[in-house]
Design a protein that fits this description.
There is one protein chain. By secondary structure, the chain is an alpha+beta fold. The protein has one domain. The chain is built from two helices and two strands. Strands 1-2 form a two-stranded parallel sheet.
């Protein structure tokens, strides 16, 4: 019976440990299929409303638009 192993990988130390474990445990076995799945957490949306920095950027761009 074939064994299929799916390992989520997100470049953490625990991910590397799991790859090492599976590699050592199942090395040389022909009936094992190992798949690495790159899992990542998307960058969160940043709310820029009511931000002092974005207010400065908005004022600067509106000034530049008015100079045309």
């Amino acid at each position: 019976m074939a064994v299929k192993i799916l390992i989520p990988y997100n470049f953490t130390m625990n991910d590397e440990k799991s790859i090492d474990f599976v590699g050592h445990r199942y090395a040389g076995r022909k009936d094992v299929e190992i798949t690495l799945f790159h899992a990542f957490t998307p960058v969160p949306e940043i709310d820029t409303r009511n931000s002092p920095i974005m207010d400065k950027v908005s004022r600067g761009t509106s000034y530049l638009r008015g100079r045309n």
